[in-house]
């Protein structure tokens, strides 16, 4: 995954996007409660950024299943999160 979006503790949605191979970002994992906690732990252990965005986490959790592309109406919000994550990764590489 490229990023995990949370709400902050009850939901976690892991998203992967590779513009060379995908039309849209893909939900690779999602969960609530204990599963959300495990998704966050695995992401943090693997160096995957965890971004808190309650409205986006709730919208993704309700509207997308694992293995599905994100819906068009959430492209902009997810693109903003991915842009933030990519910029953060570049800054960390420069250090």
Can you characterise this structure?
This protein is of the alpha+beta class. It has a single domain (3-94), classed as secretion proteins EscU (name from scop, 3-Layer(aba) Sandwich), CATH 3.40.1690. The chain is 45% helix and 21% strand. It has three helices and four strands. It has helices spanning 34-46, 54-63, 75-94, and strands at 3-6, 11-16, 26-32, 50-52. A four-stranded mixed beta sheet has the order 3-2-1-4, with helices on both faces. A hairpin with a 4-residue loop joins strand 1 (3-6) and strand 2.
Features:
alpha+beta, name from scop, four-stranded mixed sheet, 95 residues, 3 helices
The appropriate CATH architecture is 3-Layer(aba) Sandwich
Q: Mean pLDDT, as a whole number? A: 93
What is the class in the CATH system? Alpha Beta
Q: What's the number of extended β-strand segments?
A: 4
Main beta sheet: strand number and arrangement?
4 strands, mixed
- How is the CATH topology named? name from scop
Query: For the record, what is the CATH homologous superfamily label?
Result: secretion proteins EscU
Question: Overall 3D geometry?
Answer: globular
Topology:
Blueprint: E1 3-6, E2 11-16, E3 26-32, H1 34-46, E4 50-52, H2 54-63, H3 75-94
Parallel strand pairs: 1-4
Antiparallel strand pairs: 1-2, 2-3
Q: What is the compact description of this entry?
A:
By secondary structure, the chain is α+β, with helices and mostly antiparallel strands. It is built from three helices and four strands; from the N terminus they run E-E-E-H-E-H-H.
């Amino acid at each position: 995954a490229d990023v995990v979006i949370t709400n902050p503790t009850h939901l976690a949605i892991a998203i992967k996007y590779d513009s060379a191979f995908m039309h849209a970002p893909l939900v690779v994992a999602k969960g609530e409660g204990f599963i959300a906690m495990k998704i966050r732990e695995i992401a943090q252990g693997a160096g995957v950024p965890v971004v808190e965005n309650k409205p986006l986490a709730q919208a993704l959790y309700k509207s997308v299943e694992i293995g599905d592309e994100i819906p068009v109406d959430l492209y902009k919000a997810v693109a903003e999160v991915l842009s933030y994550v990519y910029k953060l990764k570049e800054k960390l590489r420069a250090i």
